[in-house]
What does this fold into?
Amino acid sequence: MMSTVSFDYKRIAEGYAKDRPFLHGQVMERLTNKLQRRYKNGLDVGCGAGLSTKALRQVCDRVTGTDISEEMVRAASALYREPEYAFVQAGAEEIVAPPDTYDIVTAAGVINWIDEKKFLPQMAGIMKKGGILLVYDFWISGRIVGKPAFTEWYEKEYLNQFPKPPRKERVWTKEDTEAFHFELLCQETYSMEWEMSMEQFVRFMLLQSNVIAQVEEKGRDIEEVQQYFEESVQPYFVSAAKEKLIFNGYSWYLRLKG
It folds into this structure.
Protein backbone atom coordinates (compact mmCIF):
# COMPACT_ATOMS: atom_id res chain seq x y z
CA MET A 1 0.00 0.00 0.00
CA MET A 2 1.35 3.41 -0.95
CA SER A 3 1.40 6.13 1.70
CA THR A 4 -0.49 9.38 1.33
CA VAL A 5 1.79 11.27 3.74
CA SER A 6 3.26 14.40 2.16
CA PHE A 7 6.60 15.90 3.19
CA ASP A 8 6.02 19.09 1.20
CA TYR A 9 5.67 21.46 4.15
CA LYS A 10 7.90 24.38 5.07
CA ARG A 11 8.13 23.18 8.70
CA ILE A 12 9.34 19.77 7.61
CA ALA A 13 11.87 21.11 5.10
CA GLU A 14 13.35 23.55 7.62
CA GLY A 15 13.50 20.81 10.24
CA TYR A 16 15.21 18.40 7.84
CA ALA A 17 17.83 21.05 7.17
CA LYS A 18 18.58 21.64 10.86
CA ASP A 19 17.53 18.66 12.96
CA ARG A 20 18.12 15.44 11.03
CA PRO A 21 21.18 13.42 12.18
CA PHE A 22 23.87 13.17 9.53
CA LEU A 23 24.01 9.38 9.57
CA HIS A 24 24.11 9.47 5.77
CA GLY A 25 27.84 10.12 6.10
CA GLN A 26 28.35 6.83 7.92
CA VAL A 27 26.46 5.05 5.14
CA MET A 28 28.83 6.56 2.57
CA GLU A 29 31.78 5.30 4.59
CA ARG A 30 30.33 1.80 4.32
CA LEU A 31 29.98 2.28 0.57
CA THR A 32 33.61 3.37 0.26
CA ASN A 33 34.86 0.46 2.36
CA LYS A 34 32.93 -1.99 0.22
CA LEU A 35 33.51 -0.69 -3.32
CA GLN A 36 36.79 1.25 -2.94
CA ARG A 37 36.29 3.85 -5.65
CA ARG A 38 35.30 7.44 -6.33
CA TYR A 39 32.61 8.66 -8.73
CA LYS A 40 32.31 11.59 -11.14
CA ASN A 41 28.63 12.35 -11.59
CA GLY A 42 26.09 11.38 -8.93
CA LEU A 43 22.34 11.60 -8.48
CA ASP A 44 20.63 11.67 -5.09
CA VAL A 45 16.96 10.71 -5.41
CA GLY A 46 14.66 12.01 -2.70
CA CYS A 47 17.29 14.43 -1.45
CA GLY A 48 15.12 16.13 1.16
CA ALA A 49 16.90 19.22 2.46
CA GLY A 50 20.22 17.98 1.08
CA LEU A 51 21.86 15.89 3.82
CA SER A 52 21.95 12.77 1.66
CA THR A 53 23.30 14.85 -1.23
CA LYS A 54 26.03 16.21 1.04
CA ALA A 55 26.90 12.61 1.92
CA LEU A 56 27.05 11.58 -1.74
CA ARG A 57 29.39 14.48 -2.39
CA GLN A 58 31.91 12.76 -0.07
CA VAL A 59 32.45 10.13 -2.76
CA CYS A 60 31.48 12.03 -5.90
CA ASP A 61 32.89 15.02 -7.81
CA ARG A 62 29.52 16.60 -8.66
CA VAL A 63 26.05 15.77 -7.43
CA THR A 64 22.44 16.47 -8.34
CA GLY A 65 19.70 16.16 -5.74
CA THR A 66 16.08 15.66 -6.73
CA ASP A 67 12.95 15.66 -4.62
CA ILE A 68 9.24 15.76 -5.35
CA SER A 69 8.82 18.42 -2.65
CA GLU A 70 9.25 22.04 -3.74
CA GLU A 71 9.92 23.05 -0.12
CA MET A 72 12.71 20.47 0.23
CA VAL A 73 14.40 21.56 -2.99
CA ARG A 74 14.19 25.18 -1.91
CA ALA A 75 15.79 24.37 1.47
CA ALA A 76 18.57 22.29 -0.09
CA SER A 77 19.36 24.92 -2.71
CA ALA A 78 19.71 27.56 0.00
CA LEU A 79 22.13 25.41 2.01
CA TYR A 80 24.41 23.98 -0.69
CA ARG A 81 25.38 26.74 -3.09
CA GLU A 82 28.73 25.38 -4.31
CA PRO A 83 28.98 24.74 -8.08
CA GLU A 84 29.40 21.00 -7.46
CA TYR A 85 25.75 20.86 -6.29
CA ALA A 86 22.52 21.13 -8.25
CA PHE A 87 18.95 20.58 -7.08
CA VAL A 88 15.87 19.86 -9.17
CA GLN A 89 12.25 19.25 -8.27
CA ALA A 90 11.20 15.88 -9.71
CA GLY A 91 9.47 12.70 -8.67
CA ALA A 92 11.68 9.61 -8.41
CA GLU A 93 10.04 7.97 -11.42
CA GLU A 94 10.23 11.13 -13.58
CA ILE A 95 13.87 12.28 -13.48
CA VAL A 96 15.12 13.53 -16.84
CA ALA A 97 18.38 12.10 -18.20
CA PRO A 98 21.33 14.52 -17.99
CA PRO A 99 23.83 15.15 -20.82
CA ASP A 100 26.37 13.07 -18.88
CA THR A 101 24.75 9.95 -17.41
CA TYR A 102 25.21 9.14 -13.73
CA ASP A 103 27.81 6.66 -12.54
CA ILE A 104 26.24 6.50 -9.06
CA VAL A 105 22.70 7.01 -7.79
CA THR A 106 21.66 7.04 -4.14
CA ALA A 107 18.11 6.74 -2.86
CA ALA A 108 17.84 7.35 0.89
CA GLY A 109 14.51 6.71 2.57
CA VAL A 110 12.72 6.67 -0.78
CA ILE A 111 11.59 3.20 -1.77
CA ASN A 112 8.79 2.98 0.79
CA TRP A 113 6.99 5.73 -1.10
CA ILE A 114 7.57 4.96 -4.79
CA ASP A 115 6.72 2.46 -7.50
CA GLU A 116 9.89 0.41 -8.04
CA LYS A 117 8.55 -1.01 -11.30
CA LYS A 118 8.68 2.50 -12.73
CA PHE A 119 11.70 3.69 -10.72
CA LEU A 120 14.18 0.98 -11.76
CA PRO A 121 13.73 1.32 -15.53
CA GLN A 122 13.89 5.09 -15.13
CA MET A 123 17.24 4.75 -13.34
CA ALA A 124 18.51 2.30 -15.95
CA GLY A 125 17.84 4.93 -18.62
CA ILE A 126 19.87 7.69 -16.94
CA MET A 127 22.82 5.70 -15.53
CA LYS A 128 26.09 4.57 -17.05
CA LYS A 129 26.47 0.86 -17.68
CA GLY A 130 28.20 -0.59 -14.63
CA GLY A 131 26.96 2.32 -12.49
CA ILE A 132 26.03 1.80 -8.86
CA LEU A 133 22.58 2.28 -7.37
CA LEU A 134 22.69 2.48 -3.57
CA VAL A 135 19.32 2.14 -1.87
CA TYR A 136 19.47 2.83 1.86
CA ASP A 137 17.54 4.00 4.86
CA PHE A 138 17.86 4.29 8.63
CA TRP A 139 15.40 4.92 11.40
CA ILE A 140 15.25 5.29 15.16
CA SER A 141 15.21 1.86 16.75
CA GLY A 142 13.53 2.82 20.00
CA ARG A 143 16.74 2.24 21.95
CA ILE A 144 19.05 4.51 23.94
CA VAL A 145 22.35 3.09 25.16
CA GLY A 146 21.97 2.19 28.84
CA LYS A 147 18.27 3.18 29.01
CA PRO A 148 16.15 0.03 28.50
CA ALA A 149 13.03 1.79 29.86
CA PHE A 150 13.11 4.10 26.84
CA THR A 151 12.27 1.16 24.59
CA GLU A 152 9.11 0.46 26.56
CA TRP A 153 8.06 4.13 26.19
CA TYR A 154 8.79 4.03 22.47
CA GLU A 155 6.91 0.82 21.73
CA LYS A 156 3.95 1.12 24.10
CA GLU A 157 3.38 4.87 24.33
CA TYR A 158 4.86 6.66 21.33
CA LEU A 159 3.74 4.16 18.67
CA ASN A 160 0.29 4.07 20.26
CA GLN A 161 0.02 7.86 20.11
CA PHE A 162 1.62 8.08 16.67
CA PRO A 163 1.12 4.86 14.68
CA LYS A 164 3.17 4.33 11.54
CA PRO A 165 1.34 5.51 8.43
CA PRO A 166 0.91 2.93 5.64
CA ARG A 167 4.01 2.41 3.51
CA LYS A 168 5.62 -0.31 1.43
CA GLU A 169 8.22 -2.30 3.37
CA ARG A 170 9.03 -5.02 0.90
CA VAL A 171 12.65 -6.13 0.51
CA TRP A 172 13.76 -6.33 -3.11
CA THR A 173 14.98 -9.67 -4.43
CA LYS A 174 17.45 -10.57 -7.17
CA GLU A 175 14.52 -11.47 -9.40
CA ASP A 176 13.02 -7.99 -8.87
CA THR A 177 16.20 -6.17 -9.88
CA GLU A 178 17.30 -8.46 -12.70
CA ALA A 179 14.00 -7.83 -14.46
CA PHE A 180 15.23 -4.25 -14.95
CA HIS A 181 18.87 -5.08 -15.81
CA PHE A 182 20.28 -4.45 -12.33
CA GLU A 183 22.54 -6.93 -10.55
CA LEU A 184 21.88 -7.07 -6.79
CA LEU A 185 25.41 -7.17 -5.40
CA CYS A 186 24.53 -7.45 -1.72
CA GLN A 187 22.14 -6.34 1.03
CA GLU A 188 23.24 -5.54 4.55
CA THR A 189 21.67 -4.37 7.79
CA TYR A 190 23.44 -2.57 10.61
CA SER A 191 23.11 -0.26 13.60
CA MET A 192 24.51 3.25 14.03
CA GLU A 193 24.73 5.59 17.02
CA TRP A 194 24.05 9.32 17.20
CA GLU A 195 24.24 11.56 20.27
CA MET A 196 21.31 13.89 20.99
CA SER A 197 20.23 16.16 23.80
CA MET A 198 16.60 16.04 24.84
CA GLU A 199 15.91 19.24 22.88
CA GLN A 200 17.51 17.79 19.75
CA PHE A 201 15.58 14.56 20.15
CA VAL A 202 12.25 16.34 20.49
CA ARG A 203 12.90 18.41 17.36
CA PHE A 204 13.88 15.24 15.52
CA MET A 205 10.73 13.41 16.58
CA LEU A 206 8.58 16.24 15.26
CA LEU A 207 9.90 15.33 11.78
CA GLN A 208 8.88 11.67 11.84
CA SER A 209 6.33 10.51 9.28
CA ASN A 210 4.22 9.23 12.19
CA VAL A 211 4.02 12.78 13.55
CA ILE A 212 3.62 14.41 10.13
CA ALA A 213 0.59 12.21 9.51
CA GLN A 214 -1.01 13.42 12.75
CA VAL A 215 -0.05 17.12 12.56
CA GLU A 216 0.03 18.19 8.91
CA GLU A 217 -2.43 15.62 7.59
CA LYS A 218 -4.91 15.30 10.48
CA GLY A 219 -4.58 18.70 12.15
CA ARG A 220 -3.19 17.75 15.55
CA ASP A 221 -1.75 20.82 17.28
CA ILE A 222 2.05 20.99 16.88
CA GLU A 223 2.58 22.79 20.19
CA GLU A 224 0.59 20.14 22.03
CA VAL A 225 2.63 17.42 20.32
CA GLN A 226 5.91 19.13 21.22
CA GLN A 227 4.81 19.42 24.84
CA TYR A 228 3.89 15.74 24.86
CA PHE A 229 7.40 14.79 23.77
CA GLU A 230 9.13 17.18 26.18
CA GLU A 231 7.24 15.78 29.14
CA SER A 232 7.24 12.10 28.21
CA VAL A 233 10.92 11.71 27.30
CA GLN A 234 12.35 13.81 30.12
CA PRO A 235 13.04 10.75 32.35
CA TYR A 236 15.42 9.35 29.73
CA PHE A 237 17.65 12.42 29.35
CA VAL A 238 19.89 13.78 32.10
CA SER A 239 19.80 17.63 32.21
CA ALA A 240 21.70 19.01 29.19
CA ALA A 241 23.70 15.83 28.61
CA LYS A 242 23.47 13.98 25.31
CA GLU A 243 22.33 10.37 25.10
CA LYS A 244 23.40 7.83 22.49
CA LEU A 245 20.46 6.83 20.34
CA ILE A 246 20.66 3.66 18.30
CA PHE A 247 19.45 3.72 14.70
CA ASN A 248 18.84 0.67 12.54
CA GLY A 249 19.71 0.84 8.88
CA TYR A 250 20.14 -1.08 5.66
CA SER A 251 22.00 -0.69 2.37
CA TRP A 252 21.28 -2.44 -0.91
CA TYR A 253 24.04 -2.30 -3.54
CA LEU A 254 22.96 -2.70 -7.16
CA ARG A 255 24.96 -2.46 -10.39
CA LEU A 256 23.48 -1.65 -13.77
CA LYS A 257 24.46 -4.45 -16.12
CA GLY A 258 26.61 -3.48 -19.08
